[in-house]
Amino acid sequence: MNVTPKDLLDAGVHLGHQTKRWNPRSKPYVYAHRQGITIIDLEKTHAQLEKACTFVENLVSGGGDVLLVGTKRQAQELIKEAAAATSMPFVTTRWMGGTLTNFETIKKSLAKFKKYQQQDANGELAKFSSKEQSAIRREMARMTRNFDGIIGLTGLPGAMFVIDTSYEEIAVAEAKRMNIPSIGLVDTNSDPTQLTYPIPGNDDATKSVRIIVETVVAAIQAGLAHRETRRTARVDAKAAAETAANGGAPVEIDLEKVALPGNLKSLIEEDKPAAAPRRRTSRAGAKVSAVSTEEV
Questions:
Q1: Do 107 and 98 contact (CB within 8 A), yes or no?
Q2: Confidence of residue 256 (pLDDT cuts 50, 70, 90)
Q3: Are 176 and 194 in contact (CB under 8 A)?
Q4: Looking at the DSSP assignment, which residues form a beta bridge with residue 34?
């Protein structure tokens, strides 16, 4: 991780909420209260961020996915950029209740959405009546808003990363209920104990949110690189095992460079087996004698 506490200070991560709005459970991460503002301890923020990034990198390198969630205005574009850079599922418009706790129903809705998209692409949707087309397109527009980021999700994610746990309270609760590890940027007005890996910091300023998101994205990309390296190593090991089972490396022969003997045709004729003698029969079907091909 290339981020230092000084970088966090420059991004304003240390600025918490007003003291009258602070959550007492965030006290372990509070440095002081100054002029009615809660100041976050950036040393602890840096330690928590490093711990979260290590977990994310190990998870992704092992084949897991991270669901990125940020529906508040300051986080929407940043989460979309992070998802585009890492090919991870994301939610930026509205958290659908039951996305994790009722995932089987969500899968059916996703399958229906994919079916509509396929029908629209191959022209089958045009065969419906105008009224049916209008109804389907309205439903597709609604599904696009709700499912656009998770359309490729085939199972529960390995972890979830959120911006502002108070704003994403339902998502955090569902992840906790499904025993899915959660990582999140949590301000002083939120409860950090609801997250597996809380990152105390300012979740309202775009600059503060950006530096945390970019650090997590770097951890995801490092995990993807390790995953690809492992996959390549497995492929190479499998190829080496197959080669060893075949008695060594395969030898490539260029048939155009192979010299053929001049008497190849005569050698082939000599290797042909002699024709077996055939028996001559009378019209009555009785065998008369064996006649060889030489006699004929």
A1: no
A2: low
A3: yes
A4: 37
pTM: 0.75
Kindly state whether residues 61 and 126 are assigned to the same domain. Answer: no
Q: In this structure, what CATH number is given to the domain that contains residue 215?
A: 3.40.50.10490
Distance CA 28, CA 165 (A): 17
Q: Is 71 domain-assigned?
A: yes
Judge contact between 143 and 109, C-beta under 8 A: yes
- Residue pair 182/196 in contact by the 8 Å Cβ criterion: yes
CA–CA separation, 192 vs 198, rounded Å? 6
Q: What is the DSSP letter of 72?
A: S
C-beta neighbour count of 136 within 10 angstroms: 15
Two tokens, residue 25: 């459970």
pLDDT tens digit sequence for 29-88: 988 888 888 999 999 999 999 999 999 999 999 888 999 999 998 889 999 999 999 989
Which candidate, 125, 123, 150, 153, places its Cα nearest to that of 138?
125
Give the CA distances from residue 131 to residues 121, 125, 137, 138, 224, in Å, rounded to whole numbers and listed in that order.
19, 12, 10, 11, 46
Q: Are residues 81 and 185 in the same domain?
A: yes
Angle between helix 103-122 and helix 130-147 axes, rounded to 10 deg: 130
CB 69 within 8 Å of CB 163: yes
Whether 256 maps to a domain, the answer reads no
Query: In the listed set 118, 136, 155, which residue is the last one of a domain according to the structure?
Result: 155
Question: What does the alpha-carbon distance between residue 163 and residue 225 come to, in Å, rounded to a whole number?
Answer: 25
Q: How far is CA 184 from the centre of its chain?
A: 20
Classified as helix, coil or strand, 191 is coil
